Amino acid sequence: MGLSKFKQAQQWILQFGKYKGLAIDKIAETDEGLKYLDWLNDQTWLQDPLKSHLVNYLSDPTIKKELDAST
Fold first, then answer.
1. Rounded Cα gap, residues 50 and 64, in angstroms
2. What string of pLDDT tens digits covers the 71 residues of the chain?
3. Taking the complete model, does pTM exceed 0.85, yes or no?
């Protein structure tokens, strides 16, 4: 059986920008990183598979709670 969508999202490596080379889960370890992921998720130019991974990651109840607390 494969990894859950959340686990896949946690392990996805960003291929560009400030956090290039880091996994989504690693980026989200700081408030700044978590806010960046939320911002990135709102960008209209963002495409799959990254868009899907961000949606799966940020929709997790624990992550949503952390994001709400950081804003």
1. 18
2. 578 999 999 999 999 999 999 999 999 999 999 999 999 999 999 999 999 999 999 999 999 999 999 86
3. yes
